[in-house]
Each structure stands twice: as structure tokens, then as C-alpha cells.
Amino acid sequence: MPHFRSLRWKIVLLAALACASMALTVGVLVHDSVLRRSMHEGAGRAHVALATALEDATVAGEDGPRVSPGELPEALLRQVEHGGEATLYENEPPAPVFWAARREGGKLYAVEVDMTADLLTRQALDRHMWKYSLLTLGVVVPATALATELPARRLRRVARTARRITAGDLDARTGTVRGGDEVAEISAVVDSMADSLQQRIDTEQRFTADVAHELRTPLMGLVTSAELLPEGEVTDMVQSRVRVLRDLVEDLLEISRLDAGAETSQPGPVDLAALVRDSVARTGLAARVTEREAAVVESDPRRLDRIVSNLVVNAHRHGAGRVEIAVAGRTVTVRDHGPGFPADLLSHGPQRFRTGSAERGHGHGLGLTIASGQARVIGATLDFANAPDGGAVATLSLPQDGPPSEV
Amino acid sequence: MSDSVSAPAPAPVTVLLVEDDEVIRRSVAMALERYGYRVLVAADGLTGLELFREGRHDLLLLDVMLPGLDGIGLCRRIRETATDPILMMSARGDALDVVSGLEAGADDYVVKPVDTPVLVARIRSLLRRAAFVPPVAEPAGPAEPAGPLVFGDLSLDPAALEVRRGGERIALAPTELRLLLEFAAHPGIVLDRQTLLREVWDYGWDGDTRVVDLCVQRLRKKIGAEHVETVRGFGYKWKR
Questions:
Q1: Within this chain, do residues B175 and B67 fall inside the same structural domain, yes or no?
Q2: Is-contact B38 B14, C-beta < 8 A?
Q3: Are residues B17 and B93 in the same domain?
Q4: Cβ–Cβ below 8 Å for A217 and B24
Q5: Which of A209, A257, A266 sits opposite B209 (nearest CB)?
Q6: If you compute the radius of gyration of chain B from its CA atoms, what whole number of angstroms results?
Q7: What contacts A115, CB < 8 A, 6 or more positions away?
Q8: Scanning every residue of chain B, which has its alpha carbon at the shortest distance from the alpha carbon of A221?
Q9: What is the distance between the alpha carbons of residues B88 and B17, in angstroms, rounded to a whole number?
Q10: Each residue of A361-386: pLDDT tens digit?
Q11: Contacts of B91 in chain A (CB under 8 A)
Q12: Final residue of a structural domain among B130, B164, B197
């Protein structure tokens, strides 16, 4: 069932409105003109009746249809006083009548003509107009609803495709569209948009893959050669710098893959508490993990691990005091007791190679950028804040599990 | 891994390394020799193929990007006839390289730059798979030698490590065989990818589960897709 604000219902409503207003206009005009004709005829008939009655009376030598002023409606009397002769329609029980009255030689004559048949005819006409207007509406509204179903369905298909593309399914296409209307046009535009998006991402991905190759090949030679050096102080220095360089290259490659949209989530069931514990243990850094109703989530364990370990490493590198990690439901909170996140990070989010302030120490500021990027890939949100009693607080909130069919 | 430096491999295991970058080729060869391996080197795919045909190696270590015949093409050519353990080295590490390497029949892959201890651990795990003595052979009832396990048209002799389909012998790469034995040991039970990674590939928690998916695909192609059922969102199940 489409939403009540759907275009389809708007079109149906419009058609109904057009129908109704046309029926109303025609109805009012017809009603009015019939009434006018009927009044005209009624007046004529009353007039003729009065004249006939007076004539008959003269021929017969009798007095005409005399009435006392009290018997006549006041409006009729006033007209008679004014013009000597008048007619008036009076629709009052027991029956609608047309009066004709004349003052002649100081005497007041009047007749009334019964208008019941006339009234019934007009009422019947009104009823008919109502009935057929409603009948027309009853046909037009469902017919419009049916006729708009096809374009509505085509539009919904376009919307569905666009939604799938947004959700990351870049192979989604509306496909061949019949007809040359606006729906066909928007379908074609959505498809070509997806094509160009796909193309751009492909190019980006190829580029990052090539960059990775170009950087890693000499790095691999460097890493293995450095391992072959005889033990010594210089070797330690070289090896330590090689490690830093290697981590940096990997971080940069990871960021460029994230930027290129080359990363896709590979979800599976994850015990959040266990993952966080393992992840913290692998960093080899001290941190206290508490858990409360930790959930089993549908997510990508490798990306979750990247996020958690980057947050923990960052807390150790730039924060101070105890690092505390709380797993509650579907959220993971990492906090330290250092100076907190710099204002720049709180307002703009993590930016590569910007650690913000000197007091947060040295480092390349890539860890939080990676954590944010990976959180985006798994559809989670990563918020940065400072605790009121000091210390940086990073909160990772995982989305609700989607239906398994979307995996 | 710390014990590995002092304990050289008991019999000299020969690794055939095909790598075009000279520094990597020489340094990896030297590093592996320190671990007690013999190393044969080739700088391009065709030379690698020739050395492979001489058959003096126990394991192949292939770079993906090679001049002439690339690592994936080389792997495919080798898999046409042989089931030797193959480890791929990729500097790109993106889905395309990894997937095409594994589809071509590689048993495992590493992304450059790789530390020598990690490389050696992968090589050992792969060699273990190649010289695998399966636990399924343990007799559950009487002590008679376990006969071949039969699943439909498929018969699997865990002692002789022979797999036949419709009477015809199938050649399985070490990883495929190990995966098959793992499935056959747990008929009707869903095995998730992490478990398979741990049991078959000796990975810790963080292995790339695509390795499992692609190896299952290759196995299905060889033994018939009907034996392994995919359980969506969990893993795979061997049909009794």
C-alpha cells in the first residue's frame, strides 16, 4: 500500500476534484435555469388562470374570484398595491402554489395555481444530477487509480534502484524502460548516474591498487633486507624506522581505499564483548574492559577490530591515565583520562595528519580517520566527545541488524 | 614464532620463489635460507614454469605481478597438472588480485610487505596441509583399517588420501583435500568460516574469509556442488 502522500493519490484526488467541480458547476447552472424557466411558466399560468377566471365570471355575470387582503401573502399584497397586478410563488405546506392577484374597481381578485408537479419534476432532476455525478466519480476515481498504478510502479522502481545504489549496490540498475515519458527519462538518468559513479570508483580503486603496488614493492624489499642486517644499535634504529614507515604506508593505503569507496563490509555474527577483549589484547596495551548486556551483532569483525584497536592505540598515544572500554548493548565506549580531544576534532571530526594540539603529543592522526572511515563502512556511527570530568570519550554505536536477506 | 630461528626445518624443504623485484627476490631467498629452506629463484613467469617442470621444489611462492606470464597465469598453468602447494604474494592486496589468485588455485596468499616469520609460518602451515595425516582415520569401533568413506558418487580414503568420483580419481590441491577431510569429519554440521580458517589454514582469528569461500568453490567444482551446502550467514555444511 503506497503512502497516502504518494503521487498516485494526489492524481486521484485531483481527478476527483476536477470531476466534482465540473458536476457542481453544471448542476448549479442547470438547477438555476430550470428554476427560472419554471418560475416564468408558473407566473404565466397563474396570470392566464386569473384572466380566464375573471373573463368567465364576466360572461356568467358573476363576481370574479374575490379574496380579502388577509388571505393573501403580504409580499403579494404589497406588489398589487404598487402595480395593480402581481404574481408570487409560495412554497409552503400543504402545497407549492403560484398566486396571481389583481385589483380591479377597488376589488381584490386572486387565484392560485398548484405547482406540486413542477416542484417534483425539479426535485427529480436534482436527484438525477446528484446520482450521476456520484456515479461518474465512482467510475473516474478507481479508473484514475488504476491508470496511475503503472507510472507509480515505475517510479517506485527507480526509487528502489536509487536506494540500492545509495546502500552501496553499484550494480543496481533500473533497466530498460518503455515509453518516452518523464519516468523513462529519470530511470535513464539514474542508470547513467550509477554508471558514472561506478566508473569513478573503479578508476579510484585501480589507482589506489596501483599506488599500493608501487609503494609496497620497495617496502617489502626494505622490510626483508632490514631483517637480514646483523644485530646492533644501528640495525635497531633502521628496523624501528622501517616499521614506522610500513605502518604509515598501510594506514595511508587504508585511508585511500576508504576514500575510494573500495571497502565493503563482510558481515557475520560477532560477539561484541569477546571481539573487544581480543582486540584490546592484541594491541598489547593496558585497558580495562567492562561489559553490560553486550550484544551479538551482525557486523564485519575485521573492521570492528580495526576501529577498536585504533581507538585504544589513540587513547594511549594521545591521552593519559587509565584507558577504560565499556561495551554495553550495541555500543563501545573508549575513554581515557587525559586532556581530551582538541576542539578542532570535536567540531570537524578527525582529519588526517592533524593531531590538533601539542599537548596531545605526536603521531600522524591517521588512526581516528581510519576508525571513522571503517565505522562508515559497517554503517556504524563514531562520536567524539570530552567527559565533563576530563578525558576523551569515543563512542561507537552499531546499527540494528538488518534483515538477513540484505546481507 | 620465536623458536623458528634456532630450529631449522628437519629435511631441507625447497621453495620455488618467482619474483621479479630483484631486492625482494634476493632478500626473501636469503631470509628463507636462514630458516633452513632451500630456495630456487626465477625472475619471471616462464622461467618459473621451467623450474617448476624440473620438479625439484616442495612449495611454490609466487608474486602476482610478473613480466610475461603473471603469477595468476602461472598458477593456473601449474594447477592444470599438479597439486603442489602454492602461496601467492600480492603487493596490491585488493579484492581482484586476491580473488583471482585464489580462483587460479593458490592455497593461500600474503600481502606485501610481509615479515619473514609470518611468511615462514604460512609456508609451514601449507606444508603441514600437504603432508597431512587426517584424524578421521582413528577407528571408532573395531580396529580394522578404516575403509573409504562414501558419500553418493564420491569415495574418500582418508588413509591413502585418495578421492574418487564415480570411480575416477580426482586430484585435489593440499588445501582442497584438507578442507574436504574437515567437512567429511563433520557431516551434517555447519562449519563457520572462522572455524574452517582455524582448522584448515591455521589462521588466528583474523584471516580473510574469502580464502574459505573460494576454496569451497574450487572444491565444489571438482567433487560436485551437491556435497557442500551453503548456510547463509553462517558457513558451510557437508551433506551426509
A1: no
A2: yes
A3: yes
A4: yes
A5: A266
A6: 18
A7: A38, A42, A89, A91, A95, A96, A97, A98
A8: B24
A9: 10
A10: 455 578 888 999 999 999 899 999 99
A11: 212-213, 216-217, 220
A12: B130
The pLDDT of residue A107 is 82
A18 touching B (Cβ < 8 Å): no
Q: Rounded distance, CA B10 to CA A215, Å?
A: 36
Average model confidence (pLDDT) for chain A? 85
Model pLDDT, residue A406: 37
Q: Retrieve residue A9's grid coordinates.
A: 493519490
Which among B92, B194, B233 has CB closest to A213? B92
Q: Which of B143, B172, B141, B140 is nearest to B156 (CA)?
A: B172
In order of A28, A205, B118, B143, B202, the CA distances from A368 in angstroms are: 73, 22, 27, 60, 31
Task: Provide φ and ψ at B211, rounded to 5°.
Answer: -55, -45
Contact B112 A301 (CB under 8 A): no
pLDDT tens-place string over residues A101-131 = 888 777 888 888 888 988 999 999 999 999 9
Q: How many domains does chain B have?
A: 2
* pLDDT score at A402: 60
Tell whether the model's pLDDT for residue A404 goes beyond 50. Answer: no
Per-residue pLDDT band for B146 (boundaries 50, 70, 90) equals low
Instruction: Please give the grid coordinates belonging to residue A79.
Output: 406588489
Domain A193-259 has CATH 1.10.287: yes
